[in-house]
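Narrative of activities, Objective 1.

The group set out to show that a structural description can be obtained from nothing but a protein's sequence at a throughput compatible with the screening campaign. Below is one input-output pair from the validation batch, recorded exactly as produced.
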Amino acid sequence: MKESVIYQDIVQKKAFKLISRQLKRRFGDLDGSLVEQVRNLSAEQLENLGEELLDFSEIADLVVWLEQQ
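Output recorded for this entry:
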């Protein structure tokens, strides 16, 4: 089941929702292009971002992280 496309889509959407809420709480509303870049990350990338954003001190840290993906 974990390999099904539908399951992976659900996991990715849930991860995006959580990460976007965390980013909004930390940095306020994000630029639409940043939101889209985050939305297009895989579930694994979103999980990694969730850990990394704990060390971010400014939105530029997110931009750099996204450029490295």
